[in-house]
Amino acid sequence: MNERERLMRTLTCTGPDRPSLGDYFAFDSTRQRWEREGLPQGLNNDSLFDYFGMDHINIWGRDKLPILDGPLPALAWETIEDTSEYVVRKAGHAVIRALKNEPPPAMPQFLSYEVTDRASWADYKSRLDPDTPGRLPADLQAIGRASSGRTTPLGVWLGGTYGLIRNWMGVENASYLFYDDPALVEEMMEHLTFFYRTLAQRIFAAGVQLDWVMFWEDMAFRNGSLLSPEMYARYCMPFYRTMVDLLHRHGVKVIALDSDGDIHQLIPLWLEAGINVMHPMEVAAGMDVRETRRRYGSQVTFLGGIDKRAVARGREAIDAEVIPKMRELKDSGGGFIVQCDHGIPPDISLDNYRYFRDLVRRLGEQE
Hints:
By secondary structure, this protein is an alpha/beta fold. It folds into two domains: 3-74 and 114-365, TIM Barrel (Alpha-Beta Barrel); 75-113, no CATH class. The chain has helices at 3-11, 28-36, 45-51, 118-126, 140-147, 162-169, 171-180, 182-205, 229-249, 267-273, 289-296, 308-313, 315-331, 350-365; strands spanning 78-82, 86-91, 94-99, 109-112, 155-157, 212-216, 220-221, 224-225, 254-258, 277-279, 301-306, 336-340. The strands form three sheets. A six-stranded parallel sheet has the order 5-6-9-10-11-12, sandwiched between helices. A four-stranded antiparallel sheet has the order 1-2-3-4, with no helix packed on it. β7 (220-221) and β8 (224-225) form a beta hairpin. The protein is globular. The mean pLDDT is 96.
């Protein structure tokens, strides 16, 4: 069974020879630590997959169709303040401050956002034009001709709804917008639908056969969704109904959604829309792949689900985290690509991570 067939069978619960092996990305600070602990120098996330014996299912790298779906022309970041502790950068209306001694996974602080009102949205919208040259690969036709014969899976990220508006405006501003100017929210959603539908149609028109599509929201935190299910159903679901209908008409069977946090309130809506893979199932926010499988059955499958904090603590904690989850999911139909529940942080040692990956492989190969 090749890697393409294995991924499809894993995420549709149709009996792979073994579950697909993959993971999230490792932060630069993580790779730097691992290099000090013996990892060969200069590996990127794609070559890390090879080094640890994982399949070609890197949704963050070589196994995704590269599209440019951000605003074009992109605005360059310029430094407007540089101190011994932090640096402040500006691009358009957006201003961020980042601490120098806290590289990723630490996040910068936004001092202002790109979209602040209708006028700034009009400017931003003008740069979200699907007709802008360079959005799709120059060799898209060749990718299409080769896609049916691939032995490794190919997919694409096709945006989202609330998560993008939150990125443009910030949580507080976006939250007020749904109450203060719902017509503007609807305009944004309509444009996102037009934009991503157009890109997807052009991908399919080139003959590209997609094995998976990932949407992105990041719209929940530890205590639940940042938007009520009622508002999500009203404003965001039309996007997903349109997009999933298009994907189904072109034979896409694996339709995934990436959102951190506690997504319990949102899963029923996503399943209703036709999304069948949840990612990354963040344990610190109360997500448990076993509980979700018991509730929804094999209509939902998973990427992620392993507490990265357990991987950092060592072998005993890794066993306690991984073994029960893999065994229960295997007994209930599979559909579980065992990964850390977010980017691999630098508190995970090379030895612990290698043990984690070896354990996942061993358990997956057991009858």
